[in-house]
Specification:
Layout (H helix, E strand, L loop, with lengths): L4 H18 L2 E8 L6 E6 L5 E2 L2 E3 L6 H13 L1 E3 L4 E7 L7 E8 L2 E3 L9 E7 L10 H11 L9
Parallel strand pairs: 1-7
Antiparallel strand pairs: 1-4, 2-3, 2-9, 5-8, 6-7
């Protein structure tokens, strides 16, 4: 074995492991508003509370592609025009490098109401003045930011 090989190999492995630990993760969420300005919210089977629909961006997937996929899976919706990127947030509840891209969606098509499945317990539109109990703190904050009722917090 060449002198220093073990040291260089060990350093290379350590660098790769360090980069993997430090990898940034990205999620997407959508504030979907219908023509009556009602917002679409989901309740998952695996965690309490009402959320904006969304999820993680997969390797090799763009944020817009992930948003479109999540809207199909969680809402039975297809985008009919590009959404507006509202903000990019640090998600302190996740890893220290977890970020969430929030989009506002106003142009979509929903062929049928979302039926409950293994992931989504309940999903429906709510008027801003009649939001459900159990709305998560982050969801409530994002809706207030979109409405202009509070300043944008850079943290989810």
């Amino acid at each position: 074995m060449k002198p220093g090989f073990r040291t260089r190999a060990t350093q290379a492995v350590g660098l790769r492991l360090g980069l993997a630990r430090r990898a940034l993760t990205l999620g997407v969420r959508a504030a979907v508003f219908d023509a009556d300005n009602r917002v679409f919210l989901v309740r998952h089977t695996y965690t309490p509370g009402w959320y904006l629909p969304g999820g993680g961006v997969e390797p090799g997937e763009s944020a817009l592609a992930a948003l479109a996929r999540e809207l199909r899976e969680e809402c039975e919706m297809q985008l009919s025009a590009p959404p507006q990127l509202f903000g990019l947030y640090l998600n302190r509840a996740g890893l220290k490098r977890d970020h969430v891209a929030l989009y506002v969606v106003r142009a979509f098509h929903q062929a049928r109401p979302k039926s409950p499945d293994f992931e989504i317990k309940e999903a429906q539109f709510f008027a801003p003045e009649a939001l459900p109990g159990g709305l998560t703190t982050a969801t409530r904050a994002r809706l207030a930011e979109i409405a202009g009722a509070q300043a944008i917090d850079p943290c989810w």
